[in-house]
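wait is this the right file?? whatever heres the structure
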């Protein structure tokens, strides 16, 4: 079998594996998070601004036009329901796996490229983002192409590939603004390899990156900064440094992080330029994890597009162990490579239990069936619940920071109140759990069985004005 034919067959196999995983049960999960907001944002591109033209729903497409228009194309081609709205992300997630293998093959070798592509295809977080109607997979694809093109630029000492990498970085920035870190990362990665290799040809490539960075700065000041003014003003998701670091590590998975550490240590034995290059990108991911919580209203998804460097180092470690084993025992080497497929197996299997998200569709349908005139319903994600409840039911938003105060106020109005509460394995806040236990009855609990530590549960409680009297009467009888 020729090398080219083997390359094509492996790429086809990876495409089938990644595509099957990403399209399996794609439309089974209810909308969650900002998926409904994405539908509104793409609608605003067609309908134009309205009375709330300064809202983030209308401003975000101007900030990330590449993502917005790609999402709009996906919605127009495949539909706006749970399945159709996610098809684009699933396609791009599959493409990301295949391109990672093809572009790494020429710079890191066949085994490293295959191991990295397998890790990527079976990485639960990548699978989750590939089944989400949001912008992160679009940004991740362009960010990955930036890093992969930069690796080819270093390999070939090529100005053309450097320009290509900068072009993909621009696309990533216009897909998710914080990916502006890519240009700095590209400069750092090329500068490090030029310094380690004492290569002036590589150093000359830095001028291309500097020129692209200056252009990006002009675009930022003229176009993006006016749109960004006041963005998430006063918002904070409460990520401390420790919380941010552990969230990023958990996002990748401990096996991948530990293997990446071995990949970094291999520099001192192998010393190849490409490992130095990808170590720089892993440092950019780590630096963003540490710094971003202090300068923006942070969410761990923001560093997801920057993660490829860590996976490549993990793939490099897998390849080095494979090559060492192959010298003595070929079946053991093949078995070791196969183990990369099951590193995150519990989380991978668990993803298909609940889509790694809270389900508000099931409790919404339950409440709709039990609804009586005069009833009210409240939850943290009122817009999502409203999407799945019957006409005429308008959920009341519940404050995440102080839900008990809101429930106390609503309970004084003397009507039945349905309360839909999502919670993870850590459970509900103590004061909320205590208030619900004293004043409400549990009507429904939806808790899909997962095989890892995580849990995505939604519960439906019912507050009735005479609940306290009935509890007291029952206690007296007992």
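ok assuming it is, sequence goes like this
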């Amino acid at each position: 079998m020729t090398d080219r034919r083997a390359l094509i067959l492996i790429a086809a196999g990876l495409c089938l594996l990644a595509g099957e995983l990403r399209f399996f049960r794609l439309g089974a999960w209810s909308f969650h998070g900002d998926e409904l907001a994405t539908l509104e944002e793409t609608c605003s591109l067609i309908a134009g601004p309205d009375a709330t033209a300064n809202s983030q729903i209308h401003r975000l497409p101007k900030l990330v036009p590449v993502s917005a228009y790609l999402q709009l194309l996906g919605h127009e081609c495949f539909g706006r329901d749970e399945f159709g709205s996610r098809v684009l992300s699933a396609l791009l997630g599959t493409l990301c796996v295949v391109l990672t293998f093809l572009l790494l093959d020429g710079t890191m070798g066949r085994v490293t490229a295959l191991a990295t592509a397998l890790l990527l295809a079976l990485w639960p977080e990548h699978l989750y983002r590939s089944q989400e109607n949001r912008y992160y997979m679009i940004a991740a694809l362009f960010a990955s192409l930036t890093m992969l093109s930069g690796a080819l630029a270093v390999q070939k000492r090529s100005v053309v590939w450097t320009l290509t990498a900068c072009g993909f970085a621009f696309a990533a920035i216009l897909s998710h603004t914080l990916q502006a870190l890519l240009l700095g990362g590209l400069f750092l990665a090329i500068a490090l390899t030029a310094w380690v290799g004492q290569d002036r040809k590589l150093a000359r490539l830095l001028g291309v990156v500097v020129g692209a960075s200056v252009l990006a700065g002009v675009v930022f000041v003229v176009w993006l900064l006016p749109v960004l003014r006041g963005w998430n003003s006063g918002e904070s998701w409460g990520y401390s440094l420790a919380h941010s670091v552990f969230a990023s590590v958990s996002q990748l998975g401990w096996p991948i992080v530990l293997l990446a550490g071995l990949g970094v240590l291999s520099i001192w034995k192998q010393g190849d330029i490409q490992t130095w290059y990808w170590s720089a990108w892993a440092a950019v991911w780590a630096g963003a994890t540490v710094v971003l919580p202090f300068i923006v209203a942070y969410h761990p998804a923001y560093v997801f597009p920057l993660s490829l460097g860590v996976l490549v180092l993990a793939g490099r470690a897998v390849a080095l162990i494979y090559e060492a084993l192959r010298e003595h025992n070929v079946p053991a080497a093949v078995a070791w490579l196969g183990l990369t497929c099951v590193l995150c197996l519990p989380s991978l299997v668990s993803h298909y239990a609940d889509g790694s998200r809270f389900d508000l569709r099931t409790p919404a349908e339950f409440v709709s069936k039990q609804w009586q005139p005069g009833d009210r319903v409240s939850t943290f994600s009122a817009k999502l619940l409203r999407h799945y409840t019957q006409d005429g039911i308008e959920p009341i938003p519940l404050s995440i920071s102080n839900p008990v105060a809101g429930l106390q106020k609503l309970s004084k109005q003397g009507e039945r109140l349905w309360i839909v509460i999502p919670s993870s394995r850590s459970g509900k806040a103590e004061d909320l759990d205590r208030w619900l236990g004293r004043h409400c009855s549990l009507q429904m609990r939806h808790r899909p069985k997962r095989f890892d530590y995580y849990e995505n549960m939604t519960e439906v409680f019912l507050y009735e004005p005479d609940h306290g009297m009935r509890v007291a009467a029952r206690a007296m009888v007992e």
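The two ends are 80 Å apart (CA to CA). so i think its the right one actually
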